[in-house]
Write a structure and sequence with these properties.
homodimer; 269 residues; alpha+beta; 9-stranded mixed sheet; 4-stranded antiparallel sheet; 15 strands; 26% helix
Chain lengths: 269, 269
C-alpha cells in the first residue's frame, strides 16, 4: 500500500501512519488505564476486555508483550492509554487481508487531578447510540457518537451526559456506565446492543453482590430518570461518581451508595 | 499532547500521527473519488457531501485548497481517496478543544480494472447497521460495521452484501447503495437514520427522474428481497451494478435498468 503516492496537506508523504486502518476505519481497540502505586488498577479485567475485543474483530497481537509494555509505562505514569490497531492496510477497502501486522500504541499521562468533591452534575443528551450487537461491549475505536455527545455538552456545565440508544432505552454516559436507584432497586442498563462493558461497571456489580445488594441489568426507559432516588456513573478514572444534580433536579445522597463507593475506591487489585 | 511520552510497539515515538483524532476516534471524513480523463467524476456532489460532513462534525478546513490538491492528484490517478481528519488532539478525551488543525490526506491509486461483466452476486448479511441520525448520510471514518460485514462475506463468493439496520429495514450494501424493483416500482431505502448518501445514489435518482421513472425512498423490509424482480447496487466505482443472483435466486435482467445504467455510465460531469 505504501507504494502508492500520498500527500498530507499537499506535501508528499510515504510513511506508514496515513495507511493505518485505525485511521481509515477506526479498526482497532483501546483501553484507558489508571495507575496506582505504579501498577495498573484492575489489570486483569482490562486484559480480558481487550482480548475479547481482539477476538471479535479478528485482530491477532502478542498480548503478553502488550501488557509488559503497559506495565513498563505504568512505572512513571498516572494514566495510560493503550491503542491496538489492526495495523497498516495491506490492501484497499474495508476487508482486512489477514496479512496486517497489528501494533500497539501506549500513551503516558501524569496523574490527573482527582475531582475534589464527590458529586456530579448529570444531564440527559439528545445524542443517541446506534445498536450493533457485533460491536457492543468492546472498547473499539469508532467513537464519533461520543465525540458528538461531548460536543452537545459544551456550554451545559455538566460533568457527564447520559445517552439512550436508537430504540429508546438508557444505555450509558458519554464516557461512563450508569447505575440508577429506583424504588429501592439498583439497576444498570444492559450493554449487549450498544455501550461499553466498563471495567468499573464489572467491579461495581461484583462489590454490590458482595454487599448482598442485587443489581438488575435491564432495559431501562429514559423516564426512570424522572423519579429515581439516586444515580451514579462509573469509570476507572472517576470510580463511582454519584449525581448530586440530575437534569436540574437535586438528588439526596444515598448512604448505601456511598458505602459502595468507598469500598470500590479502597480496592487493591 | 505530543509532549506526553508514547511508544509504538515498545519503541519511543514523538511524532504527530499517533495523536491524530482520526486514529483515536475515527474523527473525520472520507471520499472515494473516480478519475475519468484526468478529472474527478461528479466532483460537485463529492464536494457537497464533504462540506455537509464537516459542518455536522464541526470540522473547519480550507475546502478550496483540499479540492485543488485532489485535482492535482487526479491528473495521474485512476482512483483518489481523500481523508479529512480533525487533526492532532490538543487535549485528552472525546471533546474537541476547538484548537485542532484539520488536515487532509490524499491517496492516489491507478485505474482499477473494471468488472468485465456487468452483474453481481449479492447476498444478505447478518451484520447490522446501528442507527444514528446525527451521523447518517455522511461518509465519516467510523467504519467498523463495514469491516465486520466484509469479514462475514469472506468465503461467500459474493460481490456485495446487503445490510439491514438494527430496527429491521434494508439500508445498503457494505460499500454501495441499493435499489430494488418490486411489482414494477423502483425503490431505495431511506438513509436518514443510517447509511451513506452515495454520490451515485443521487445521480441515479436524478437520472431516473429525467427518464420519468419515479423512485420511492422508503422503509423497505428485508422480505422485499424474497420477491423483487430486480435489484442493483451503486457506487462511483461500480456505477449501477445489477444483481444477477440474489441470495442464490437468479434474477432476470431488466431492460429499463440497463438503459438507466448505460445512461449513468455515459454521463460527463
Amino acid at each position: 500500500m505504501n507504494a502508492h503516492p500520498m500527500w498530507v496537506n499537499g506535501q508528499p508523504s510515504e510513511e506508514g501512519w496515513p495507511f493505518d486502518r485505525a485511521l481509515h476505519f477506526g479498526d482497532g481497540l483501546f483501553e484507558t488505564l489508571i495507575v496506582r502505586a505504579g501498577r495498573i488498577r484492575f489489570r486483569a479485567l482490562h486484559q480480558a476486555r481487550l482480548a475479547e475485543g481482539c477476538a471479535r474483530l479478528g485482530i491477532a497481537i502478542d498480548h503478553d508483550r502488550v501488557w509488559r509494555d503497559v506495565d513498563a509505562a505504568a512505572t512513571t505514569a498516572g494514566l495510560v492509554k493503550l491503542i491496538v490497531s489492526r495495523g497498516i492496510a495491506t490492501a484497499r477497502g474495508y476487508a482486512p487481508s489477514g496479512s496486517e501486522l497489528a501494533r500497539h500504541l501506549i500513551f503516558s499521562y501524569p496523574h490527573s487531578p482527582q475531582h475534589e468533591t464527590v458529586g456530579f452534575k448529570v444531564v440527559t443528551l439528545q445524542a443517541l447510540l446506534g445498536e450493533n450487537p457485533l460491536l457492543a461491549g468492546i472498547k473499539h475505536l469508532n467513537r464519533l457518537e461520543q465525540v458528538m455527545a461531548r460536543l452537545q455538552m459544551s456550554g451545559l456545565s455538566a460533568d457527564e451526559g447520559l445517552m439512550a440508544s436508537s430504540s429508546g432505552p438508557l444505555i450509558s454516559g458519554t464516557m461512563s456506565n450508569v447505575f440508577v436507584l429506583h424504588k429501592g432497586h439498583l439497576m444498570t442498563p444492559r450493554i449487549d446492543r450498544c455501550g461499553v462493558a466498563g471495567v468499573l461497571r464489572a467491579i461495581t456489580l461484583r462489590e454490590a453482590a458482595r454487599m448482598e445488594w442485587t443489581v438488575t441489568q435491564a432495559d431501562l426507559p429514559l423516564s426512570i430518570l424522572d423519579d429515581c432516588e439516586g444515580l451514579f456513573v462509573t469509570n476507572v478514572r472517576w470510580g463511582i461518581q454519584p449525581a448530586t444534580v440530575l437534569n436540574g433536579r437535586s438528588l439526596d445522597q444515598n448512604r448505601q451508595i456511598d458505602v459502595l463507593r468507598t469500598r470500590v475506591e479502597s480496592l487493591v487489585e
